[in-house]
Amino acid sequence: MNILYSPFKLKNLELKNRFVRSATYDGLADNNNRVSDEQIEFFSNLASGGVGLIITGIGYVHHTSQVSLTANSIDSDEFIPGYQKLTKAVHESGAKIALQLYHGGREARFVKTRNILPLAPSVIENDPYFKETEYREIKDSEIWEIINAFGDGARRAKEAGFDAVQVHGAHAYFISQFLSPFTNRRKDQWGGSLENRLRLHCDIYKDIRKKVGENYPVFIKIGVEDGFSGGLEFKEGKQAAKLLADIGFDSLEISGGIRGKYYEGTEFKPYINSIDKEAYYRSWYQELKNQINVPIMMVGGLRTPALMKEIIENGEADLVSLCRPLIWEPGLINEWKTDEQKKPKCISCNKCFDAIHTGQKLYCRVLEKEQVG
To answer: Which among 68, 86, 153, 262 is least buried, having the fewest CB atoms inside 10 angstroms?
Structure first.
């Protein structure tokens, strides 16, 4: 049997294969931040297309964390019924599903429409990415409020039928802002040493675990290196990943931290048009895999089944995680099962990501134009 299609167990969660749909914000929630019918169809298509585990994109856990108008919320019990419809549809279509728990931190710019300043570990003088007046430093009491919100979000996800949760600790958002020495200049228990900068991660895990029990799978997406000089370096990010595995997270997905110059300094590497450009975080995984005692999901420009198979067989990762190729071709996993040579239509032009930033929905702009033409 092709190892990519072999079953795998994450804690007590049985997956039918090694393919994970990596979390990506889709912009498909309704204007009340609830699950929409369009969203249910979107994830059902992914499930019937063959992926073993779907991770949804950014369910925000607190009213200060909203990144856009049509982001999904999990900050109240009122959202549970909509998520129950979603998980039921995905399960009926043959996949497992995890909810990604998220806080935007200083990236949560949409909250400014409610006269709320986004929150950050520290306000950075001469910040090259934000004006100093665009966000404020979070108070200690507010940190504990958000930790509690992550735990409550996980409890709601479990009640809604999600098979697991993934904490978003990468890609410039709140948790990665605490890990990075560039964005975290605090002098209290939340800043300074690596241990202090990881305190938020650890306390979020403890609160989640207390509310969902010992047997419920809890994952984390962790940014281990910032996309610019002067930020988090891999030597520290590697230590952070090992510590998070040791405290109890059931699986790690290793990715980038605070974003640098677009696009090379971000997780959205452009134009993955040859196999040598794929798996662009592979060296991190090769260095980390034997030092981490929990399963790892490899993300980062994966496009070729033969390469993914090699990665799993070499023991560099336990699962392979991808998204952009599945935007236009949600059935790609099933197609690869019978035609491993099939090349995805995705060219990683990032026009889908550009559109998301203007408030549009997640879909392939280039191939849509070709279809219309």
So the answer is: 262
Using one digit for the tens of pLDDT, what is the confidence trace for 221-237? 999 999 999 999 999 99
Cα separations in angstroms, 55 against 97, 140, 155, 300: 6, 30, 17, 15
Beta bridge partners of 54: 21, 97
> Crossing angle of helices 199-212/140-159, nearest 10°?
40
Host H or E run for residue 13: strand 13-15
Question: What is the DSSP-derived secondary structure letter of residue 38?
Answer: H
Is the Cβ–Cβ distance between 153 and 210 less than 8 Å? no
Report, as an integer, the average pLDDT of 348-372.
79
Q: Which of 222, 220, 206, 87 is nearest to 156 (CA)?
A: 87
Convert 234-286 into a string of H (helix), E (strand) and C (coil).
HHHHHHHHHHHHHHCCCEEEEECCCCCCCCCCCCCCCCCCCHHHCCCCHHHHH
Question: What's the chain's length in residues?
Answer: 373
The one-letter amino acid at 194: L
Strand 164-169 to strand 136-137: parallel, antiparallel, or no bridges (unpaired)? unpaired
Query: Is-contact 351 368, C-beta < 8 A?
Result: no
Looking only at the bridges linking them, the beta strands covering 96-102 and 59-60 are parallel
**Residues 172, 257 contacting (CB under 8 angstroms):** yes
Distance in angstroms (rounded) separating the CA atoms of residues 11 and 81 = 26
| Element at 207 (helix H, strand E) | helix 199-212
How far, in Å, are 33, 82, 332 from residue 317 at the CA level?
34, 33, 21
Question: Which positions are annotated as active-site residues?
Answer: 173
Give 237-255 pLDDT, tens digit per residue.
999 999 999 999 999 999 9
What does the pLDDT average to over 118-139?
92
Closest CA to 213 of 284, 154, 281, 140: 154
Q: What is the pLDDT of residue 196?
A: 98
